[in-house]
Amino acid sequence: MASSSSSINMNPQIKYDVFLSFRGKDVRHNFISHLNAALCRKKIVTFIDDKLNRGNEISPSLLSAIEGSKISIVIFSKGYASSRWCLNELVKILESKNKYGQIVVPVFYLVDPSDVRNQTGTFGDSFSKLEERFKEKIDMLQTWRIAMREAANLSGFDSHGIRSESVLLEGIVNDILKKLNDLFPSDNKDQLVGVESIIKEIESLLLSGSTEFNTVGIWGIGGIGKTTIASAIYSNISSHFEGSYFMQNIREESEASGLAGFRRELLSTLLDDGDMKIDIPNIGLNFQRRRLSRMKVLIVFDDVTCIQQIELLIGGLDRLDCFMPGSRIIITTRDAQLLKNHRGSRVGHVFEVKELSYNDSLTLFSRNAFGQNHPAAGYLELSNIVIKYAKGIPLALKVLGRYLFGRSEEEWENAIEKLKRIPHMDIQKVLKVSYDGLDDEEQNIFLDIACFFKGQHRDFVMNFQDACGFSAKIGIRDLVDKSLVIISNNKITMHDLLQEMGREIVRQESIKDSGKRSRLWHHEDIYQFLSKNTGSEIIEGISLDMSQVKEIRFNPSTFTKMPRLRFFKFYNSISRENRCKVHHSRCLKSLSNELRYFRWDGYPLKSLPSKNFPEHLVSLQMPYSNIEQLWNGVQNLAALKSLNLRHCKQLTRIPDLSLALSLEVLELTGCTSLIEIHSSIQHLNKLVTLNLDDCNSLKSLPTGINLVSLKTLSLANCSNFKRFPEISCNIEVLYLQGSAIEELPSSIGNLSRLVTLELQNCSRLKSVSSSLCNLKSLRSLYLSGCLKLEKLPEETEINLDSLEVLNLRGCSNLKKFPEISCNIEDLDLRETAIEELPSSIGNLSRLVNLDLTNCSRLKSVSSSLCNLKSLRYLFLSGCLKLEKLPEEIGNLESLEIMSARETAVSQVPPSIACLNRVWSLCFERCKGRLPTMGLKLPIFFQLQNLEELSLVDCGITELPESLGQSPSLKHLNLSENNFEKIPSSIKQLSKLLILTLQNCKRLQSLPELPRCSRICARHCTSLETLSNLSTLFTRSSELWQVFDFSNCFKLNRNEVGEIVEGALKKIQVMATWWKQQHPVTLYEDYHNPPRGCVSYPGSEIPEWFSYQSMGSSVTLELPPDWFNNNFVGFALCAIVPDHHGITRGFNVRCILKTKDDVAVCSLYVWNHLGVNPSIESDHVLLGYDFSLSSDSLGGSNNEFCIQFYIQHYEGPGIEGFDVKKCGAHLIYAQDPSKRLRSEVEDYQPSRHRALHCLVILSAAATTRRHQLFLFSYNFTNTATTHDHEELEEGEYEEDEVEVDEDEEEENGHVHDDGEGEREADTENYEAENDLQHRELQPVLKMRVEKTWKKTRARIVPGICPARIEKIRAQSGSGQLCVKSGSVLGTPKPGPDLDFCHPYPHIAFATANMYM
Q: Which superkingdom (predicted)?
């Protein structure tokens, strides 16, 4: 690094863009003059030799000009090589290329490149004459030859391949422009965060080579980065066009002084005519237009607000024939409507710029606030608050970042508090531009949405705005087009900063007096206003969240003083109980006649005012109120569309609604005292939804409710409603679940449009009329829980062709399988009394879900079930008498999930291996008819897509070897079985995350396992040996890792020691990997940091833990410099005593406190362990937690206390059950130059796996220093197809290989006669990682400086967990010979590599040895 920086400092000062080297006699007055002029027209600063002062010595001036240029163009002409001057120029140019990185572009003008390279032809004849003159200066001639050869090998331009000289010149100039653009990157490159993909996409489109005229629109809200993106694109591609112009801030220029000056500048720049004078508003068919039609141009129109601006500048988007085909226009705007549906518009592609992601926001903000890509220590939490506020708007992130740059934490906190009240002026100014462009009506709609309606349903907002006299449909559409609001999932929303901007506009109406503002939404302002009881003629809307205020008492006359009130909303965002905090002593006298929306949750009075009721009211919402009756008599509510009286428990009847003819929704759920519905309801012909759920006192509806618009009627849980309602035949959804009806009458058949009928839990329902079969539109029928229902109508099979969902769950008297339509898709027969699945089941060709759970009488399943090609979900759990599955079950080609838990099945059919789509299988507690039988698995148990397999308590005594041949398996539960060993093939389950083996009391050993996130072997009381422990704490898709060996008392001490050693080692590796991947802990990482734990029988804390204590707390007295950027978290250890009688399992929780007893954070090391309820001796719990950050700890505290608590798995602490000993250790990420790169490499998040081999070669007995370069190569994860085994960490094999002594002696190496092997001492090495996952891509270069004291070579395959078989010396006498040099690619025997690697798909590198 030092040498590199020094070379950079030696670079000369750049004076010129281009240096021209040429033979003046050949080209000065033709080609060079044209080239120089073309470069100058592009404003490229060019050096040409006529700029030298006459009489000057050439060397100093020429050298300065060459070294001071970014690019040199060398024009090789016929006489170039005859000039000593030209050749010396060439030599200096190539010296600058090699020394300073200058770019050299050769142009072969009327000469062949090969003639220049070899000095032949007419070009060679010229050089021969020069050779004759300087034949005594052999070195100089050789220097010239080398220079010409080097230059001729560079990429350049050959005039022979281009007939037209003008085309040649254009190509050279464009190439130079592109190179200069690359050399001088955009000044705002540092601000290009999160927009690289859209820039690349637009550039690709504009440079596609299409000869058509192409216009691209970039659209988004103010401050989103449209101009930044357009500027970057313009900078990158403008060199590809004959003319280009970036017209910035058209809106501002248009408002300030008009666009006439812009138009003149545009044409002058494009046509390179400084005397352009055009004052007419349209270019017209004049000569300038004709000139433009001959040019391929790029124009950017930035911040366009209306199409007339473009028409004034270039004649409009419908007159683009004034430009040459292949020209491009970019338009940035806040108004999407401008880019579409315009007469003659050719805007072919519109790109909407979205908000930045969290990570990109953090990066951009940090660059402006801290001058780096991440927050400074201690500022992450504060930064997150600002980022949350900015919500991905680049302008806000940059403005706030620059505003907070260099300020203290206290100043940050103060600034953030201010932002909550007053938005930043610079952000407000930019965002308000779009608002200022709206008309008065659109401004009112926007302010209403910003203050009251963000997140509300579009129809609701439009109804309100229409009722206010606004043109809501077109108004909201314009707001969407101008990026001021967004419609998503039929809800209207907007960016938080735009909402804040709108609310600030309202606040500015009266900064000090909230009563003089048009809209109130902040609880403090409303509290202050209502407490004064003054009212205001200005207020149009109030929205109060009552959960935010204390009790308010106000004079009801306040309402009479708000005559312009359109919107009134008192709601409770936390609780929907009858709890109102706003009180007044008397009844309301009147409400504003301008009211369109009135909502008061928990309204405390018994009625509303009957006089002067607002006749334009659209929505009346009074849930959880004390109201007994709304009003007396009849009110003229012609505009009312929604009436909500949910849970008004005192309401006994609803008033006369005969004049509310526009009512669409009547919501009366939970009105438990309601005894009748007023007969006027029959006149509500626009009523769509009538909801009477939980109206327990309601017994019937008025007769003759023939409401043609009624689509949904809900009488769910009306427990006294006994008679099926006589309703309109247009009803589509009917909810009667939990009602007291006893039969479905024949009139049900008249509901020809009924789609959904829900009758579940109608416990009195005995029969269903056969007229049900006339419901041609019925798709969903729910009859679950109808305990007295014994059968369905026989005709159903013929007539219910539309039925897709049939739910008969809990119909415990239903004994016969229903004969139903073959179009059924979802059939739920859980807890019914059926005894068999008949052969007719095979006719249900569209059936997707079949649920027979807990059909305790089911004995057999017809083989025709296997004909169901669409079946995806099959549930047979709890069918206690089911002994056999169909042998052809493998024919269910679409099956994804099958659960047969707790059945009498004793054998899994072999055809199950054919279920190629199944990903979840469950056979828990399937032991056959007798408990001693046990479940037999097929020999070939191989399912390609199986992810979850549960075989808990199946009495299995032997597992098939093919168990490891399901490559997608992630969760494997083998608990409570009788096998003694697990097949070794389990190692092949490379995707396995969770392996559960608890209570396998005969299990004696574990084979080599794949890398799992969780292994639970608790209470495996016979377990003695563990073949491999590399699974502990590895990088996986799950960062919570648990390894439970509790109550495994037969584990020998060596195995326990290996558990501890492996765990402690991997904790350090995980810490280093985590810090490497996350140099700064991001916001989302707090919620998913790496944590891990392991438990095993024991009573001692490992010595590795530097802080230890008896009891349940440990104090950490730390040195002053303990906290640095490499700190990751804590490793913790606790000794838990034996304990019995815990039924729910337990966890150990840790609290980290300061010396002042202030809890800093909780450590959830063992949160997912759920230790066995009963442990029979002391146990060690050991783990780590990396959830801490600099913001949670800070470096100022040097003394901490960690308190350990034992608590129920999901509950309080356990009295008398305390930790006996505890320990802690601080975890730091290791410096890359001091750690084994091989250990970290294993945990890279890649789908590829790296295979490494390190060859340590012998050297002299005396200390000599050598360098070994090791390359690793990625190959796709098909390890199972290659005949090699994986070697886990901690295990290695050696192969002693003789070294060719003659070869060593030739190189001056001296041998050590010692025969014993000694470990070579590694002093230092560095590792670099290229994260590109390409096949056979070198990703690791390792520098190893060794002290060699051995006479024999050692091959160490244990540096990475992939096993390399022994590499046998295959040269001559069997000795290994390695010569200097590096051989990459597939190794073959030869002079540089005298042995072959056994795997041709693995590239290998020999050692590059030097003294």
A: Eukaryota
Q: Where are the alpha helices (DSSP H) in 483-611?
A: 496-507, 523-532
Q: How far is CA 565 from CA 258, 510, 541, 560, in A?
A: 42, 18, 6, 10
Q: Which CATH architecture has domain 430-571?
A: Orthogonal Bundle (1.10)
Query: Residue 1214 contacts by C-beta under 8 Å, 6 or more apart in sequence?
Result: 1139, 1142, 1146, 1206, 1207, 1208
Residue partners of 708: CB distance under 8 A and separation at least 6: 685, 728, 730
What 3-state DSSP class applies to 1241?
A: helix
Domain 1040-1230 has CATH 2.60.120: yes
Instruction: Record the tokens describing residue 1404, joined without a space.
Output: 């290998």
pLDDT tens digit string along 1185-1229?
A: 777 655 556 555 778 888 888 876 555 556 657 889 999 998 888
Contact predicate 90/72, CB 8 Å: no
Out of 57, 67, 89, 961, which one is annotated catalytic?
Answer: 89
Q: Distance between CA atoms of 1078 and 249, rounded to whole angstroms? A: 40
Place of tokens 């710029």: 353
483: left (phi over 0), alpha (psi -120 to 50) or beta: left
User: Do residues 569 and 599 touch, judged by C-beta distance below 8 A?
Assistant: yes
Q: How distant is the alpha carbon of residue 858 from its chain centre? A: 47
Verify whether residue 1084 is a known catalytic residue: no
**Degrees, nearest 5: CA angle 460-465-469:** 145
Contacting residues for 903 by C-beta, under 8 A, at least 6 apart: 876, 877, 878, 879, 880, 882, 883, 926
What is the assigned CATH class of domain 937-1031? Answer: alpha beta
User: What is the value of pTM for the model shown?
Assistant: 0.67
pLDDT digits (tens, 9 = 90+) for 68-118: 999 999 999 999 999 988 999 999 999 998 888 899 999 999 999 999 999
pLDDT 10s digits, 173-223:
988 887 887 776 554 566 688 888 888 888 888 887 777 777 888 988 888
Q: What is the mean pLDDT of the chain?
A: 77
Half-sphere exposure of residue 938: CA atoms within 13 angstroms, side-chain side: 14
Q: How many residues comprise the chain?
A: 1411
For the stretch 414-464, pLDDT in tens is 988 888 888 888 888 888 888 888 999 999 999 999 999 999 999 999 999
Residue 1106 neighbours by CB under 8 Å, 6+ apart: 1224, 1225, 1226
Q: Burial level of 827, CB count in 10 A (0-12/13-18/19+)?
A: buried
Q: DSSP state, 556?
A: G
Closest CA relative to residue 20, chosen from 74, 93, 60? 74
Fold designation for 10-180: Rossmann fold (3.40.50)
d(CA 1167, CA 1147): 6
Q: 1399: helix, coil or strand? A: coil
Closest of 984, 969, 996, 976 to residue 934, by C-alpha: 976
Please name the helix (run of DSSP H) or strand (run of DSSP E) that holds residue 1342, with its range, or none.
strand 1340-1347
CATH number of the structural domain 185-352: 3.40.50.300
